[in-house]
Amino acid sequence: MKNSPVLCQFLHFVVDETLGGNGERIKEYTIGTKVLGRKSDFDPQLDAIVRIHAGRLRRALNEFYSGEGKSDTMRISIPKGGYKPNFASNNYSGSLPSPLPDTHTPDKLKKPVLAVMPFRSVSQDSSHNSFGEEVGEFASTELACFQELSVISYSSCVNAANKFKDISDISSSLGAEYILTGSIFVDRKNLRMLLQLSRCDSGRQLWSHTFTHKISNGSLFEFQEEAINLIAGAIGSYYGAIYRDAIETSRNGTSADQEIYSVIFWYDQFIKQLNKDTFDKACASVEDTVRKDPEYALAWAVLSELYSMGVGMNFERLNDQRETAIILAHKAIKIDPKCQHAYQALARSCFLARNKEGVVSASEQCFALNPRAAGFSARVGTFLIYAGEFERGASILKKSLKSNPYFPWASSLALSLYHYHRNEFHLSEEWAERTDMPQFPWVCMIKAASLAQLGQMERAKKEIEQLLILKPDITVLGKPYIGSFILDENLVDDIIVGLEKTGLVTNTNPVLVSN
After folding, report:
1. pLDDT score of 399
2. If you placed Cys at 197, which of 174, 207, 231, 262 could pair as Cys (CB 3.0 to 4.6 Å)?
3. Are 301 and 345 in contact (CB under 8 A)?
4. Cβ contact 460:502 at 8 Å
């Protein structure tokens, strides 16, 4: 098939259309005019060219999967009677993660165990005792929504608090690894709430925060809501205090259950380093995890994202890596429809296919599962900005950063793009600088364009020099390269305007889906 450009174009077209959410709209006329060069007066009833090439393609695919493609992860077929391709697992004994007999390891599914204790009042005024109890119970309920945590029932925590006084005895009786405690102070004017998250084994404090509320300032409900939002964002989900501690203990090898965190550890490592060596190590680790535990939705979702990011950076691991990424995202959702990371992975794989509708839909589903999950909210906001939904994305992203300032560098880049879109070039350059990723070509590009728009040509040209070191062929790739991570073509054009002010001349051909 590789020797037939027509069949390759036919296959790429129907696959890209399907991954882009347009599979049901693939018709003979569309293929004839967009792939086979027929004019607008093409009549499929009179000209069988599409059906002829479809038959050739079906035979070529069968031959490919019987020989050279036998070890591919996935099998693509085009059923007779239509042109929408089917994607199915290609059963073989190759490198695709597949279940290993009798090696299921329940520990892989173990989660950090958190106990939320009743918040105690330490003031003589007992009128707000119920408020502390409500916040503690509400916090426990909300944190239980995070799939990454196992939260002990609040009633068990209340019983343990009544039975034991020492924190170590309480945590031991509950089997908790982390414990959240709180104290309420009330005077005539203010209500103060002090929160602390600690490790149970060492007593080390991981996070603390003090809230102050003026009693005269209306209802306590808004204060309670603010407190819960911050607790959920600061403790739960990715980049929360427990997540960061788990990553640190895994990195240092100080956790007895460090393999529990291997999936998120390697995902985190690749996000930070973005190099081929870390990509291969991360993929190998997660592939090993899904072999041992084929029902681990989070691992399938992470593997999908790794494959997607690998495609974006030209890190090839599979022949059909892009298609496999979207299949694995759907697999994770099928295993666990409430897995936020699965919808995040689906959004990223739709992004690769330049399917804006798919990106927005998957992102909104991810957000709806748990709006308080600051880590996921940050990525949802990031994806929406990259997809051109600037105001919606920025609103979600900025709100998530208020509850948890720890977030991936890509979110800083998204806010840089948001401000560039609004012609706020000082803020655009500032947020690009905050990514702290000078080795990433896109960061240099946005900084150069922003500085040029500000008239700071000397600094802009230094960024261009660095960009040409990192991406020597940027002038050839031009618009298709910039558009590979920005779905809004107007923004792509605006960035090119900034780059051209530095004297950099780039290819301005239309953005195409990368193969």
Report:
1. 86
2. 207
3. yes
4. yes
Does residue 490 lie in a domain region?
yes
* Helices assigned H by DSSP within 193-320: 220-235, 241-252, 262-273, 276-292, 297-312
Asked if pLDDT for residue 337 goes beyond 70, the answer is: yes
Burial of 93 (0-12, 13-18, 19+ CB in 10 A): exposed
Residue 470 near residue 370 (C-beta atoms within 8 A): no
Assess whether 115 and 229 both reside in one domain. yes
CA distance 74 to 119: 53
How many structural domains compose the chain?
A: 3
Distance from C-alpha of 134 to C-alpha of 119, rounded to nearest angstrom: 9
Degrees to nearest 5, angle at CA 296 with 290 and 299? 60
Residues with Cβ < 8 Å from 484, sequence gap 6 or more? 312, 511, 514
pLDDT of residue 102: 42
Task: Determine, yes or no, domain membership for 510.
Answer: yes
Distance, CA of 395 to CA of 398 (rounded, Å): 5
- Give the structural domain span for 81: 5-89
User: What are the C-alpha distances in Å from 232 to residues 31, 171, 205, 479?
Assistant: 50, 21, 17, 40
Both tokens of 407, joined, read 């977030």
Residue 386 belongs to some domain of the structure: no
- What is the pairing mode between strands 190-199 and 150-151? unpaired
pLDDT for 397-455, tens place per residue?
998 887 766 677 889 999 999 999 999 999 999 999 998 888 888 899 999 999 999 99
Residue tagged 């919606």 (tokens): 392
Element (H, E) at 342: helix 340-352
* Beta strand pairing call for 113-116 and 150-151: parallel
Domain-located, residue 458: yes
CA separation for the pair 328, 97 (Å, rounded): 11
For the chain, first and last CA: distance in Å?
16
Please report which residue ranges of 35-123 form alpha helices under DSSP H.
49-66
What are the tens digits of pLDDT across the range 443-491?
Answer: 999 999 999 999 999 999 999 999 999 988 888 877 888 887 899 999 9
Q: C-alpha 440: how far from its chain's center?
A: 18
In angstroms, the CA 389 to CA 393 distance is 6
Rounded Cα–Cα distance for residues 482 and 463 (Å) = 16
